Amino acid sequence: METINKVRTRYFVHSQRISQIARELNLSRNTVRKYLKDDYKSDYQRENQPQPQLGDFYPQLLEMLKHDAQLPVHHRLTAKRMFGILQEKGYQGAYDSVQRAVKAFKNDEKSSTKAFVPLSFAIGEVCQFDWSHETVKIAGVEQRIKVAHFRLAYSRQYFVVAYPNERLEMLLDAHNRAFSFFGGVPQKMVYDNLKTVVDAVLRGKNREFNQRFMAMANHYVFEPIACTPASGWEKGQVESQVKFLRNNLFLPMLSFDSFEQLNDWLALRCTQVADQHQHPEMNGVTVAQAFEQEKANLRAISMPFDGYTQEMKRVNSTSCVHMDRNRYSVPVKYVNKVLSVHLSAEYVSIYDKEGLVARHQRCFDQNQFIYDAWHYVPILEEKPGAIRDGLPFRNMALPEPILRVQAILMKQSGGDKAFVDLLLQIPEQGLEAIEVVCELVLEYDAVTGAIVHNELQRMLDKKQPDDLVVSEHFRLNCDPIADPSRYDSLYQRGMA
């Protein structure tokens, strides 16, 4: 392009001859004459780029590209993988030829014009859902999190809530939070074909939905709708919301001490942002004002859905159940028994046939031991030595007087047995009573196992017996009259 400009400038502006221009610019005279023509196309490019290396393999590559274009993005083949498939079929050319052909096809796809039908939603009719991944700092640790996005299609009101992952129990909890935030339930919910929502994609719009997800849909009475694969425009509002809220909420990077604090802040910001932005189709109306109109058309919530998933687990010899590569303790009497484990977004709850056995805060790290020391206390009756090195008994949360007695007894021979006797009494007598015993023991000049045992027995002996039930046959018909003179007569008889 610069050479053409130089040729035309020298000829038309400086009136140089063609031979002189050709000599100075090292061009042929025919080339100079071509550049001087008024109809010369300076942006010439071949209309059909040949593919000599691909040859007969180009139709096969084109067929793969057309098939891939119908699939979701995360299911499509890379140019490298297509190159490998062609090599298996006998292709001996270079990877660059395949890469250029793939790039040209994608550019043609982007430049092609696609028509979309404008969508319209009735008030209170539709809410759209999607997941996104964001980067935040939780307790000072940078981590990639999952964010559940909800969008009421009529009012454009949004709600987001963050989780460590996007498992089914997180999805169920997100719906509970969203419907609570909206103050009601829409008639329909629109989703991608998520594995936690759809078990199988059937012909047309038919889907086989996850049973636990359908239990929630039946509880709230809404109709779930799954989009056509690779047709994100069917829930375009929430798709655009992901980009909008990423720029307005998650940049710059957020930092909070816990997910609870993060989600409280996100809920507050959703309200503030909705109050600041105008509704795109209602002149002079904010998103928050349109949401207030839509609230009245949402179905009222009677009670939240119990959003948990259930698994049956056998308790191992260390009185734990394994869940998500972590161990959660249960009382030792359940060793080798099968229990029902309920996983929610926040807790791991373990049940037997009669009811709740144990509940722990859920851990999202791996290879962790989450325990309650009191689950293991009964085993100390048979194995008192475990109090010294047993993992559940390290840093056991006990009142200060009990810890002081423990520190003294652990230095004595047989002191572990005396301290175990104290611990075994806590479930029956209560922590406060044993704390009082330890306070009395610490008043002695020396603390020994014998003194601890003595004070413990004195406390147990002071307990009042249960009220006696006296039979009617042993009751007196009349109360005796006190007569001190009877004792005088007995005294005089004794002196005689």
In short:
With 496 residues, this protein is of the alpha/beta class. Helices cover 39% and strands 16% of the residues.
Query: Distance N terminus to C terminus?
Result: 151 Å
The CATH topology of the largest domain, please? Nucleotidyltransferase, domain 5
CATH class of the largest domain: Alpha Beta
Task: Classify the helix fraction into a percent range.
Answer: 25-40%
Task: Give start-end ranges of low-pLDDT stretches.
Answer: none
Number of helices: 17
Shape: elongated
What's the total count of β strands?
15
Mean pLDDT: 88
What's the alpha carbon Rg, rounded to whole Å? Answer: 40 Å
CATH superfamily of the largest domain: Ribonuclease H-like superfamily/Ribonuclease H
Count of separate structural domains: 5
> Major beta sheet, specifics?
6 strands, mixed
CATH architecture of the largest domain: 2-Layer Sandwich
How does the helix and strand content classify structurally? alpha/beta
How much of the sequence lies in strands comes to 15-25%
